[in-house]
């Protein structure tokens, strides 16, 4: 059972991944000693380098998790975690130094090869290039660029064993930052589109409110006129009922007093 399981399941999982990588690095360097071909050695060194990058990332993650748990752990546990971190860093640095040694040996082999082939082979090399096809020339150029990149990496390693890891981390951070900025730009574009839609909706709503206001004002005027007419009619009816002989008020159809009955001529006579 992993001793880190009692502290944190995450720490135990990270420690297990680091241990697996260390075993893979140990087996990889043992196999590398048996490889004689320089190109195969270069490819295997690149694979081992990638594993070391992943191991460094996991060690950083282990340290971050351990610091998050410092307040909950007792001093002995924190001391044990710190010692384990230092031990893993030391083991990783040993593999980095071993990788540097193999890279230096490969570089020396290439230098010896070029030095041995410089004298007496210049014209043959020119003739060989002149007889190569376009595809062969392209492949040769790509191989030379790959070798140049590897030489640059070896120079970085020669300056500091861990500098190449820092450079790679910087490149990874730059890539992640660019992706985050792109996502934020797309999100801002979406927000701008939403704001434009909201602005258009508010403008449309304002126009509808104005039209409704005008309609309400018109309806109020009509109702006021109708109210005045009704009031006037009621007033005339009241006045007529109170004073039917008032000549100043015209008769309202249907409310006028009955007309005088006409007498026939024969009855009058």
From TrEMBL:
Stored CDD domains: SNARE_SNAP25N_23N_29N_SEC9N
SUPFAM superfamilies assigned: SNARE fusion complex
TM regions (residue ranges): 222-242
Location relative to the cell: Membrane
An example molecular function term from Gene Ontology annotations: SNARE binding
Membrane-related topology note: Single-pass type IV membrane protein
Coiled-coil residue windows: 38-72
GO cellular component term, pick one: ER to Golgi transport vesicle membrane
Domain of life, source organism: Eukaryota
GO biological process: protein transport; vesicle fusion
Major localisation: membrane
Alphabetic keyword roster: Coiled coil, Membrane, Protein transport, Transmembrane, Transmembrane helix, Transport
Keyword Transcription: no
Family: Belongs to the novel plant SNARE family.
Name listed for the protein in its UniProt record: Plant snare 11
Source organism of the structure: Quercus lobata (Valley oak)
